[in-house]
Amino acid sequence: MNNSYGHQFRITTFGESHGKAIGVVIDGCPAGIDFDEEFIQNELLRRKPGQSRITTQRDEKDEFQVLSGVFEGKTTGTPISLVIFNQDQRSKDYSHIADRYRPSHADYTYTEKYGVRDYRGGGRSSARETAARVAAGALAKLFLRQHGIEISAYVSQVGGLKLDKPYTELDLSKTEDNIVRCPDAEMAKEMEEFIDSVRKDRDTVGGVVNAVIKGAPAGLGEPVFDRLHAELGKAMLSINAAKGFEYGSGFEGVSMRGSEHNDAFYTENGEVKTRTNYSGGIQGGISNGQDIYFRVAFKPVATIMKDQESLNEAGESITVSGKGRHDPCVVPRAVPIVEGMAALVLADFLLRNRCSKA
Amino acid sequence: MNNSYGHQFRITTFGESHGKAIGVVIDGCPAGIDFDEEFIQNELLRRKPGQSRITTQRDEKDEFQVLSGVFEGKTTGTPISLVIFNQDQRSKDYSHIADRYRPSHADYTYTEKYGVRDYRGGGRSSARETAARVAAGALAKLFLRQHGIEISAYVSQVGGLKLDKPYTELDLSKTEDNIVRCPDAEMAKEMEEFIDSVRKDRDTVGGVVNAVIKGAPAGLGEPVFDRLHAELGKAMLSINAAKGFEYGSGFEGVSMRGSEHNDAFYTENGEVKTRTNYSGGIQGGISNGQDIYFRVAFKPVATIMKDQESLNEAGESITVSGKGRHDPCVVPRAVPIVEGMAALVLADFLLRNRCSKA
Amino acid sequence: MNNSYGHQFRITTFGESHGKAIGVVIDGCPAGIDFDEEFIQNELLRRKPGQSRITTQRDEKDEFQVLSGVFEGKTTGTPISLVIFNQDQRSKDYSHIADRYRPSHADYTYTEKYGVRDYRGGGRSSARETAARVAAGALAKLFLRQHGIEISAYVSQVGGLKLDKPYTELDLSKTEDNIVRCPDAEMAKEMEEFIDSVRKDRDTVGGVVNAVIKGAPAGLGEPVFDRLHAELGKAMLSINAAKGFEYGSGFEGVSMRGSEHNDAFYTENGEVKTRTNYSGGIQGGISNGQDIYFRVAFKPVATIMKDQESLNEAGESITVSGKGRHDPCVVPRAVPIVEGMAALVLADFLLRNRCSKA
Amino acid sequence: MNNSYGHQFRITTFGESHGKAIGVVIDGCPAGIDFDEEFIQNELLRRKPGQSRITTQRDEKDEFQVLSGVFEGKTTGTPISLVIFNQDQRSKDYSHIADRYRPSHADYTYTEKYGVRDYRGGGRSSARETAARVAAGALAKLFLRQHGIEISAYVSQVGGLKLDKPYTELDLSKTEDNIVRCPDAEMAKEMEEFIDSVRKDRDTVGGVVNAVIKGAPAGLGEPVFDRLHAELGKAMLSINAAKGFEYGSGFEGVSMRGSEHNDAFYTENGEVKTRTNYSGGIQGGISNGQDIYFRVAFKPVATIMKDQESLNEAGESITVSGKGRHDPCVVPRAVPIVEGMAALVLADFLLRNRCSKA
């Protein structure tokens, strides 16, 4: 469906940037999970705007309410509805774009598709919708944790600044130590300064988020369309501003030879392992028990504080003026979204896999 | 579902590499499409093994039969079942791998997931399954053609050989002029020679397929999870050996500034256009009427003719010996698969979009 | 999914009887429908408890809030979230049943399925959930109205009191004239008195709701599983306390001969009609343009004010004491629920049918 | 989807009455089930036309082929494709109805919906499609048998002849002892004679099939839309000629009082049981471990050997002449279809229930 994701662990998000509320209904979450409100709230804070000087200054508390599905601190198996009421409904700020198509936004495409659009702050196409995903993803993380699965994402590139180390050489516990969410302190500093300069230019820049999933058992993912990496890809590409996805050896792997790329099997203490992991933990679309890792490219977001050529609904040439607040680089805030979406994918496959054997 | 793809125009594929048959059921194909059998057969021939010296020599005629859903040359709105009976059932060739896990194949993961596996030729995980997709995709193409939408894919990279021209500078009508399916004759020749050398090494190499969709109207794609590019990504990543997907500016776009990346709107003869197309024809997950383009990375396939270290089902170290036939580079044959899957995605969204307005 | 209904016009309900709120997310509602809040509120009032002396005296205002998906009075094509906050959270009333299985309630089955249950007022299994359906169904009605489709339900039986007239001999505009919602004033009076006597007995009684759909075009419904009547049946049987469904000639039709039961086609003013309508407006699972009509049986609800033999969670024999408030006969309040669910079925098929032709 | 049923254990049927073949793809069948071909073939023979003098004399062998998903006698977890090639393709028999709408058939509604129709033998709307369901249902039965669940259906009514005994007073092992499939020998004889007389009248008559499911564990079914009885209802109503469904106390239960209808819980040898079973083994939409039982009404089928008033595609009055072969009463053949569909519903919920707890 349009606004639903997942098959067994299924979420439906709703809400517009400047409407009354945004939220999510989680249907199919198993009963008996400890519903750790503080953890979920904390995940939301990681995504929240206004965390640091390098993100948008929009002021949202992003406090969520539980409307259903939790009883005496545990999930009950019935749908869990989480809602965040919008605080910052400065609708008048947006009247100047009511009939204007901002370049590379969804204004034009929504209007073409639906005939109408909620133009306040991008309406449904606003990245605000991802708060609902992060809340649902946090619950998925709690479920995965019970099964020993942990997901860590981090920023590996901002503009041309690229951290050229594999995750195996990084200390991912340091990701949250800086506002860029890059586990390499030195690179983080460079990135931070760069984002700051872009912000002062009233411009934006893109970046890359890497993610690693540890502890996933073999057997997750389904042939042939719902391959684990295909669903991860879809989930990641569904995040605002995402432009690309690769897992394991990715685009670089195309230059390798099969004899080099194949991951030899061996056993260590009775456990099946692979000597290399160009497969990214996924073979034939199904997890093989090794680390799963992937990368997501994000474009520079479209909201800039500069004047731009465009059209209004009447098809007349206009100038869209940059004003208000903007997010010079979204990738630091994309980190919890990437983790949350990955958690949703894994939770779904963990449940689906319960049906693979008679 | 596991073996189904699509929401309204929905396909379910079935069949194993060396079972009795492979096939597809297409449910939700509208009534009244001219069922051009010759066109569909021709698409299958483009994917078929043994087309040229640079592909596997497995000999399959890939002739399909229509079991249902077509009457007097037209689709009837009921499910269309297409079946290809397997000719080449040399099951004994595979006895030597019955209890062995080939590196970077799906042998191990299927066994972990299901407890059993059809080991003949990779069973369900064989790329043979993609013939069913190509047949269904050909039908989707016929539907799209009625709506003026055309899809063209081509090989842009083989190993390290990369065609560094945008599609706008290529003559895509020349793609089928050579066995590599690269529209640049000179580069095609280099690629062909390179693949030949890899084949002689009994090894494999990866590559990249690019695709362009022309004529898609604005409005295709759904917020927020089923974005057009997210579904394209999933569809492409579900093809065997795919490792990455990017659209529009893709991974390179991350280094750009927003002021540079934003695609300014203007009108030409009353039609809305964009001056650049870094968006890849998709904004907010919905097509904007410009060309849609994307790239898919394929790894070197795992079947090589060399001995490799591995394990058997008992967890003992073994050597998997390369023997039989192999495909040194799958990307030329991936071209019709990429096109077919893209056609399925577009057909599905074309139908879904009929429900967007009251 | 568990808590979702519909394919294109798809709803997901959430909420427990005595939790914070109940609600519904409607995904796939087309853009451009006039969102008549008053009409929706009025439908909710028709279902609300405490309307008259013959229903439960639970006091709920059932005022709904729109959280998303509506802008400037129109639906926008994005998910519409409607929420009703619960007023009447008298949780302590339910402490006496916390570990007890009430006979013929869902207490035992939920506990077996989920390991836990929200025992307050039946939690998710409470008929309170149907308020969310009525709200969503009201929106579906608004959509159907634009296409000239109207749905009317009424009470045709209460206990042994049965109105033995076909709908064609009734004036359905009189249904709301009495608190039983039976369009025959005389029968209504008898039913009302009977329900009153059952109430005084601290007991309950069942009944039958009939429904008629006028104005549905030919072509709605899908072969072969999603037949129009099969979906209507599922939708009706999913209402609390429903025990049976029949359409057209129904159970009585089994005694007829084919020569008698077949509905002869003829034309009237160029319109195709049938001389009889034993088919109930549906042939081969697809609407034929004639009136669609069906009947739904409801059992006497399980909450009675009498002591009953039962078990507690420890498996010990106990007595469940009747206390508090009860609903002697739910069928009058079932009328708007039947209509709402029928509207959801029709709206879904109306959209799906847009994809039947190329 | 249109031609798919089930969520986890999901089938898609295809094929027309007089096309090349009919068949089914079963996706989501767990790996490791013994694929008992003989059992499946035998179930098909129970449904097959021409079994006795009281069914249609159409001659179909109904021998099925397995195209995929089974290896070394076991299901592999991949899609199982079963195909029955049509023997009896007497297309010319149907030329006389090519442009005519037979009363109470799907001719008119398919034409309205799709613009075209395969008129040969009713095409997709033919009851022949149910052979595919019976084959899939037989596999579901094999799966259920591993879990101790057995389904028995039988004929309880033909025309006005009604067997007025509850299933608990019948010996269901005698159902297959006579051609009517009524376990009461005396009633069976009456029914048989009655059907014979109807056949001689060149007419048809309806009937009722009852079914009982024994051994289903508590916990099957999902709140709130996918209740066990709602899905059973949909599945049954999707069978050709079905007009009504009721479970447990059904339509008769509406006249009861709650104090009478409530099923008191008690324990016997530590097992939870109910003293009565008006609930039909389902409470709150979820199985409670008691017997599940229900009834399905079938109308007299529309194909009769008499002349009837109707219209052609041009809207002109015509006479449809009865000729060829006809099925005077389909209910005996409906017995294996009812069982098969019930098996599919149960198998699906058995798998879905694996996801209810963390």
From TrEMBL, chains A, B, C, D:
Reduced FMN (FMNH(2)). GO terms for molecular function: chorismate synthase activity; FMN binding. Pathway: Metabolic intermediate biosynthesis; chorismate biosynthesis; chorismate from D-erythrose 4-phosphate and phosphoenolpyruvate: step 7/7. Keywords: Amino-acid biosynthesis, Aromatic amino acid biosynthesis, FAD, Flavoprotein, FMN, Lyase, NADP. NCBIfam families: aroC, PRK05382.1. FMN binds at R124, S125, S126, N240, A241, G284, K299, P300, V301, A302, T303, R325. The lineage of its organism: Bacteria, Pseudomonadati, Bacteroidota, Cytophagia, Cytophagales. It catalyses: 5-O-(1-carboxyvinyl)-3-phosphoshikimate = chorismate + phosphate. Belongs to the chorismate synthase family. InterPro entries: Chorismate_synth, Chorismate_synth_AroC_sf, Chorismate_synthase_CS. This is Chorismate synthase. Its cofactor is FMNH2.
